[in-house]
Design brief:
By secondary structure, this protein is of the alpha/beta class. The protein folds into three domains: 10-102, no CATH class; 123-222, DNA primase DNAg catalytic core, N-terminal domain; 223-346, 3-Layer(aba) Sandwich (Dna Topoisomerase Vi A Subunit, Chain: A, domain 2), CATH 3.40.1360.10. The protein is 29% helix and 20% strand. A five-stranded antiparallel sheet has the order 3-4-5-6-7. A five-stranded mixed sheet has the order 8-10-9-11-12, sandwiched between helices. Strands 1-2 form a two-stranded antiparallel ribbon. Strand 11, helix 9 (286-301) and strand 12 (305-309) form a beta-alpha-beta unit. The protein is elongated, with a radius of gyration of 39 Å. InterPro entries: DUF7146 (IPR055570), TOPRIM_DnaG/twinkle (IPR034154), TOPRIM_dom (IPR006171). Residues 236-326 form the Toprim domain.
Length: 346
């Protein structure tokens, strides 16, 4: 049997209107009329100022077009009858009363809705760990090509660098993201757990960074943590950029190196226990020097001896590319303490 959108059969609803006897009274029919299908409306077109038109809408329960008084706009349906007879005004209560009259069951309302599974948020340590796990080892990838174009052949013994062929990138000021190849660096804490990642988007041939803005972006919890490129020792060298610190490893492979990723994070890196000597590799800019002073002061407070390593040019990767690793090694030899010169290649 045809039903309306609320699940109540149309024909019983129309018959109930007839039982209510409102069709027997023409004036009542003008206000509360649920005519049978194809029943023509009352002919009231004799008045120039008053006529009846068939409404474009349907009765809520029976789905049959209403007759509407064009002058007053009055019309009615089964719910209007129930409202007039019972005084019920709330629409849900009217529907419940109509279903009771028609012998229809009340809708079953679930006790509680199952909570939707929350979407894993982006930018968290968990999201960073997923991205790093989905990346590939660096050997034979565009990330290796990129580092070699920067004069770097030592990629770190900790496996902190990986490659992702389709890492999402959103241009500054845009809302749409585009997948691009990227070098992925793991930012870890003292226990070795991934707390964030640093992404460097690469040119399609790997010969440099991609022509995008920004070219680099980090996610996760970075403060206090670092990209641990090589295992720590009783000495440690900490600087800003990944390429900068790998350049030091290129010149002196025996130096343990970490990258803090920025001058702001350099001053906040948590120093490992048992550290005896700290080398701070600075960039030649005011921000880098301030960060070095902050980190040096923190290290001195806990009894760690500190030395500063300073490049000839802007940073140590500039030195490596401009002068080669032998010249960089000689430059560093004059800044390293006597107790650590045995680490220099013979």
């Amino acid at each position: 049997m045809p039903t309306h959108g609320l699940g109540v059969p149309r024909e019983p609803a129309r018959k109930l209107c007839c039982i209510a006897r409102h069709h027997e009274n023409p004036p009542g029919a003008l206000r509360l009329c649920c005519p049978a299908p194809r029943e023509p409306p009352p002919n009231r077109a004799s008045s120039r100022h008053r006529n009846i038109t068939r409404a474009a809408t349907c009765c809520v329960l029976c789905g049959i077009p209403h007759n509407t008084d064009g002058a007053t706009g009055e019309h009615g349906d089964l719910l209007d009858i129930i409202r007039a007879r019972t005084g019920i005004t709330r629409f849900p209560d009217l529907l419940a009363e109509a279903r009771a009259h028609l012998g229809r069951p009340q809708p079953v309302v679930p006790d509680r809705q199952e909570p939707r599974k929350a979407k894993a948020p982006g930018g968290t340590p968990a999201a960073a760990a997923r991205l790093f796990a989905a990346s590939n080892p660096i050997t034979g990838t565009l990330a290796e090509t990129y580092l070699r174009s920067r004069g770097i052949t030592q990629f770190g013994a900790n496996g902190a660098l990986r490659f992702h062929p389709k890492c999402w990138h959103r241009e500054e000021g845009q809302t749409r993201s585009i997948p691009r190849p990227a070098m992925i660096a793991a930012v870890t804490d003292g226990a070795g757990a991934v707390q964030g990642v640093h992404r460097t988007w690469l040119a399609p041939d790997g010969q440099g960074k991609a022509a995008v803005n920004p070219q680099r972006r980090a996610m996760g919890h970075l403060l206090g943590n670092a990209v641990r490129l090589t295992p720590q020792d009783d000495i440690l060298v900490i600087g800003e950029g990944i390429e900068t610190m790998l350049s030091l490893s290129e010149a002196i492979p025996g130096l343990p190196v970490w990258a803090a990723l920025s001058s702001g994070h350099l001053g906040a890196v948590r120093l490992p226990e048992g550290l005896q000597r700290l080398y701070v590799a600075i960039d030649r800019d005011p921000a880098g020097q301030r960060a070095a002073e902050k980190l040096s002061a923190r290290a001195s407070e806990v009894g760690v001896r500190v030395r500063v390593l300073e490049p000839r040019l802007g940073d140590f990767n500039d030195d490596l590319r401009a002068n080669g690793k032998d010249a960089l090694r000689q430059h560093l030899a004059g800044q390293i303490g006597p107790e650590d010169r045995h680490r220099l290649p013979s």
